[in-house]
Every structure is written in structure tokens, then in C-alpha cells.
Description:
Blueprint: H1 6-10, E1 14-16, E2 19-21, H2 32-41, H3 51-59, H4 61-64, E3 71-77, E4 82-87, E5 92-97, E6 107-109
Antiparallel strand pairs: 1-2, 2-6, 3-4, 4-5
Amino acid sequence: GQTYNxxxxxxxxxxIEKFEVAQYDFPNRMNWKDAKAECAxxxxxxxxxxxxxxxxxxKNKKKIDGFANNYYWSxxxxxxxxxxxxxxxxxxxxYFNKYLTLYVRAVRAF
Length: 110
């Protein structure tokens, strides 16, 4: 079951460029489809970041804070099987099968 509510994920909003970032990661790593669904469940326009937004988040990771030195999903698809993710240790973008379970941080445009 869910061990979090939307407030415990959103927390104190961090504004970067044209979007705002939830304060916390989801507690569980998720596959791409679940990651998209869980972000949307936060309501009011929350979603997975695009790969460009993830890149901005990486460049501002000290300001945003709380990231694991790990892999985070983006909403950007390569094709029907694969999507892009960013490694928060070195800022490198990769793509892989959407069944991979990775970390998730939600964003929304403002």
C-alpha cells in the first residue's frame, strides 16, 4: 500500500526556471508507467519531468537537494519500449527499458 500522501512528497516547492519541483522523491523506485501514474496522482498538473527538465534539476541539485546519487526517470520516450533517465551522480542521460525501476521526483509547470 501507499506509505505516503501527496503532501509528504510535494513538501516545500522549489521553483527552477519555468517549473517547480517536489521536495521529496517517492519512497519507492518504480517502473516508467507507474512513475508517470504516481506523479499524476499528486494532482494539479504534477508529472514526471522531461529529460531537459531533469537536466536542469541536475544542474541545480544543490539548490533542490535530497536527490539520491542514482537514476531518475524522465517522461521522455525514446520509443515504445525505452525511456530516458538521468544519473544524478554525473548528470549523464541514458535510455533503457521502461520496466526498469528507478527513482522518481515529480515536477509541474507554473
